[in-house]
Amino acid sequence: MKVLRIFFPILVLHVAAMIYAQDDQSGFISIDCGIPQGSHYTDNSTGINYVSDYGFIDAGVTQDIQAIQNNNLRVLNTIRSFPENKRNCYTLRPQNGKNNRYLIRAIFYYDESRGEPPQFDLFIGADYWATVTQMYHELIHLASSDYIHVCLVNTDQGVPFITALELRLLNITMYEEYQSPSLILQARYSLATNEMIRYKDDKFDRIWYYYKVNKSVHTSDTVSLKSFTEEQVPLKVMSTAMLPIDNNSILQLNYTGTVKDYFDLIVYLHFAEVEMLQSNQKREFNIYINHVWTGRFSPSTNITTVKAYTYSNSSFFELIRLVRTSNSTLPPILNAVEVYKLKQFQQNQTDDQDAAAILSTKSTYGLTKLNWQGDPCVPQENVWVGLNCNYDASRAARIVSLNLSSRGLIGEIATALANLTMIESLDLSYNKLTGNVPNFLAQLNNLRILNLVGNNFTRPLPAELLEKSKKGSLSLSTDEEGIDEEKSSCLKGSCRNNNNKIVVILAPIIGGIVVLSIIVLIVIQMKRKALIKKEELFIPSKQRFTYSEVVSITNNFQNEIGRGGFGSVFRGSVGNNQVAVKMLSESSSQGYKEFQTEVKLLIKIHHTNITSLVGYCDDRNHKGIIYEFMANGNLGDHLFDGSATVLSWERRLQIGCDAAEGLAYLHHGCRPPIVHRDVKPSNILLNEGFHAKLADFGLSRAFATEDATHITSIKVAGTLGYLDPEYHATTRLTEKSDVYSFGVLLLELITSRRVISEGVNIVQWVKSQHEVGNVETIIDSRLDGRFDIKTAETVVETAIACVSPKSIKRPTMNDVVMDLKHCLRAERTRQSESMSLNFETMSDLIPR
To answer: Regarding the domain delimited by 189-343, which CATH topology (the fold level of the hierarchy) does it fall under?
Structure first.
């Protein structure tokens, strides 16, 4: 008994360890898409622990469909759909990291009796995986990065959705034949069983479908199978085997689908002798794969053997043929089969250290509104907003530039930024950052540009950072540019001089020096103006191009894409990026002053809804501004005069939101605030995804100080019909002047009527229709009623409030953004709810 007492606890721990080993889900990530944030549960039938998809993705709309009232199918009761964005990505970070082999399974459960299912593409990172056409899509993947991004891409054939996402860690030695990094599952069958097999029978949670056969053989009670294959096929799968019908000498399985493209397949055949053979019995057969003899084989008793073969497919083929040899007394058998398509993914991804750093920064500041999804740098067309990356075909992409200006960042500078070791430019300006500027910024050897303007950092700045700025190896922008840091600290009140006598003695001397300095500066300035021609623009920037460079960029101005009072716009390219080049004509009504204003302003401001400045040209008689290229031109091209484009109601709301956010940034995100002064459809540009950006800032004006309430302009500027009547009467320019112009723009957007149509002003026309309750007649008739009447009423009322004659009654642009975003969300929810996503039981496919 004493011995028992000593060893009993050890025995209990050993048994517990064995139980845990059998139920070890440490290599599992099991996501039930759409269940509430923070929720989790254990599936009754499999024992798998599922968690919510919150934290793995930022976008999408959840929906509780309760398709099947059955606890065994709980994972099918919710979905997440993606009416927004073209590309939406789940980010998985398995704890075992890269250079491990994983099974990745995406589940899409759809009831086709309710209509045609949506069709969309599935990607692993930047690599195409499949077009979603079935419930399960499964991949065995050798990860080259610590991060695995599973992305759903909208192909304009319905709203993408997902039911569940699962990841399972495999042994690295599994499925390593032919060194293919990825295998896309085509078929996996446990032959001669009558049930689907998965976890816990298969500790890797592979799903083995049952294959209906007419004849099979099972193990006897005295036979125990031993699996020595690296694939570790479950005992339950290998305990049965398929036989030919009527003891025929040939066992044959056909691939019964037509394959549209050509690729390499790998077939795994799993064999084990499950009968007790007599001394006079022998089982031996030849194996043919797609009519090609691959060898002779005899299964071993109690031992599982795997045979792997690769071949290129044809459009229709015989897959497996087992033929009994003349020496065999028994027919061939086959226990299980797996078929995979070999896939060589490029696996181009962001460097893991950079990815971890930027994801940590995203988490620190809660940057969920930037649509930062998937890999930060790859593919290049989906690089995260505010990032620039360096791409080397032989290495992972590296982040070289990060612009988080005016993003509402709060707190201290994220320590994760220290790991962006290749970064060259970092812009943290105009946020609410506080605390000490960390010294690690000075340790970033590649950092050349650092903008910290518009924050509330503790002084002084790190000496090493100031030293790099002084030497010229770092372009440092702070709120006290050009002031010695010691002096700026004194200006902030951090130092004191109590020697009043010295102050009294020095005061008149300093005063005299200041007066003399002012006189000298005036003289120098007058001489400089005499020597420098009027048209030269002095803006220190790396974005300045010579005229010869502009000629090269535009291929000698061959592709003109627009023309206006300012001159002509040409399409060109800078490196691999498409650009638009606006050249100022000598007779331009915009004038040189407006050209200067626009360049100076665009160099300083950065926002996703403001057209980005690539560069400018101020080469004596040649003036030009180089912008990012906007593939879909301006908004007016898609609204008026027989445009072939009929913008959907959702797209109109999105464009309105985009333009409103750009204006809200100018009014509330810039210090001091900026008024655009010329908001109209031709100054709203659309990119390839029809997202809108404000353009043409030649008439823009900044307030003198942050506290100023208005700008008094001698000359009223703007466009007839969009001009604020109060500003026109008083010459007092405020942010509300832009609000009026935006209200007119919004009315044009929803009606597709010009501001002046047949002599009638759009504001008066809309108000007259609204007063008698004719909201439906206000909306563009080409939409044929494809909009929600409630959101339409809200948008019309918002626009009417914007064009109130008195500026005090107009909303702010922040208020307008909130109203339009609410309408946009409501419209997308309506679309999502109208999408057929009700499901029915598929008993022969659903894991039990």
So the answer is: Jelly Rolls (2.60.120)
User: How far is residue 693's CA from residue 635's CA, in Å, rounded to a whole number?
Assistant: 10
> In the 3-class helix/strand/coil scheme, how is 366-431 assigned residue by residue?
CCCCCCCCCCCCCCHHHCCCCEEEECCCCCCEEEEEEECCCCCCEECCCHHHHHCCCCCEEECCCC
The three state secondary structure string of 641-698 is CCCCCCCCHHHHHHHHHHHHHHHHHHHHHCCCCEECCCCCHHHEEECCCCCEEECCCC
pTM over 0.85: no
Closest CA to 274 of 327, 330, 232: 330
Contact between 731 and 712 (Cβ < 8 Å): yes
Helix-helix angle 813-834:735-751, to 10 degrees: 30
Could you check whether the bond before residue 379 is cis, i.e. omega within 30 degrees of 0?
A: yes
Q: Which H, E and C letters describe 111-177, residue by residue? A: CHHHCCCCCEEEEECCEEEEECCCCEEEEEEECCCCCEEEEEEECCCCCCEECEEEEEECCCCCCCH
**pLDDT tens-digit readout, 683-693:** 999 988 889 99
Q: Which residues pair with 456 in a beta bridge?
A: 434
Among candidates 456, 514, 814, 505, which has minimal Cα distance to 669?
A: 814
CA atoms of 606 and 454, how far apart (whole Å): 14
- 78-109 residue pLDDT tens: 999 999 889 999 999 999 999 999 999 999 98
Class of domain 635-833: mainly alpha
CATH number of 544-628: 3.30.200.20
- Tell me the fold of 352-491: 3.80.10
Helix/strand/coil percent split, the chain, to 5: 30, 25, 45
Q: Are 769 and 777 in contact (CB under 8 A)?
A: yes
**Which one from 678, 738, 780, 819 is the annotated catalytic residue?**
678
Distance of CA 529 to the CA centre of its chain: 50
Helices 649-664 + 813-834 axis angle, to 10: 150
Residues 597-627, buried b or exposed e (16+ Cβ, 10 A)? bbbbbbebbbbbbbbebbbbbbbeebbbbbb
Q: Which amino acid, 283?
A: R
Domain boundaries, the chain: 22-170, 189-343, 352-491, 544-628, 635-833
CA of residue 606 relative to chain centroid, distance:
19
Domains 22-170 and 189-343 fall in the same CATH topology: yes
Within 8 A by CB and 6+ apart from 540, the residues are: none
* Segment 227-266, tens digit of pLDDT: 656 678 998 899 889 999 877 789 988 755 444 455 678 8
Residue 205 bears catalytic tag: no
Calpha distance 567→638 (Å, rounded): 22
pLDDT at 406 over 70: yes
- Given a contact cutoff of 8 angstroms between Cβ atoms, the answer to whether 339 and 187 are in contact is yes
Whole-number Å distance between alpha carbons of 426 and 401 = 6
Q: Encoding tokens for residue 554?
A: 């535009």
